[in-house]
Design brief:
GO terms for molecular function: rRNA (adenine-N6,N6-)-dimethyltransferase activity; tRNA (adenine(58)-N1)-methyltransferase activity. The chain contains eight helices and 15 strands. With 244 residues, it is of the alpha/beta class.
């Protein structure tokens, strides 16, 4: 899949697909490469661009509010998620986090309770080109913990949780993680974060930390420079813990 970009417009298309807009019609060449310029029948140019992580956030089909790139960046940076890691994810939703991790070549098993949302997430993984790395399963992860943590199963390097009952999974982290593995819990509500913290402490996890994610854009104008007044930029809370 490629992005076709014309000024502030972006369209997601595959080679061979047709694009119809008020700027004209074009068919994406089968041999299109990033950086190429293609034109509509009216002569309007579109630049071919390769998908990157932020493009997934902007263009994947949404089944709810996806995790923001700023939060994903904190998860990756704090846990050191890397190629070859085994990740257990719960609360797939749109699948943006799973897609990011899949593009890093981590092996992700992600659970989504709503079967229709899971179908959308599978299609999003196809669009993101990470089908071989991300296994989207329809179901409640809390009902699969015994099987996932039983003796003989390969442990996970990272648990990423975006569910209201994340604390129940955190409590089972010692059964699921390999030594040195991390838990990362995202929640828009501080109550859920507190429950996750308490569960991590009771489970004997270490390095238990909680952060609120706030990001402010800077405005640089002729009069001077200052943080934008457009909003505080709060997205949610992230709880991290580690299994020794």
């Amino acid at each position: 899949m490629y992005l076709l970009v014309h000024e502030n417009r972006e369209y997601l298309r595959a080679p061979g697909d047709e694009l119809q807009t008020d700027l004209g019609v074009l068919t994406v060449p089968e041999d299109a490469e990033p950086g190429d310029t293609v034109e509509t029948h009216l002569g309007e140019p579109f630049v071919v661009r390769r998908l990157r992580g932020p493009d997934l956030f902007n263009h994947l089909e949404r089944t709810g509010a996806p995790m923001m790139p700023r939060d994903i960046g904190l998860i990756v940076g704090h846990t050191g998620a890397a190629a070859g890691d085994r990740v257990l994810d719960a609360g797939t939703g749109t699948g943006v986090l799973s897609a990011y991790l899949g593009r890093m070549r981590a092996e992700v098993t992600t659970y989504e309770r709503d079967p229709e949302f899971a179908d959308v997430a599978r299609e999003n993984m196809r669009l993101a080109g990470v089908e071989e790395y991300v296994d989207v399963r329809a179901g409640d992860v809390t009902e699969e913990l015994d099987a996932l943590g039983e003796e003989g199963q390969e442990p996970f390097d990272l648990l990423t949780l975006d569910t209201g009952d994340a604390a129940d999974v955190v409590a089972r982290a010692p059964d699921l993680l390999r030594s040195g593995g991390y838990v990362a819990v995202y929640s828009p509500f501080v109550e859920n974060s507190r429950a996750a913290v308490e569960a991590a402490r009771e489970a004997g996890l270490s390095e238990v930390e909680t952060f609120e994610t706030i990001q402010r854009r800077m405005d640089f104008e002729d009069r001077g420079s200052r943080p934008s007044t457009a909003g505080v930029g709060h997205t949610g809370y992230l709880v991290f813990a580690r299994y020794e």
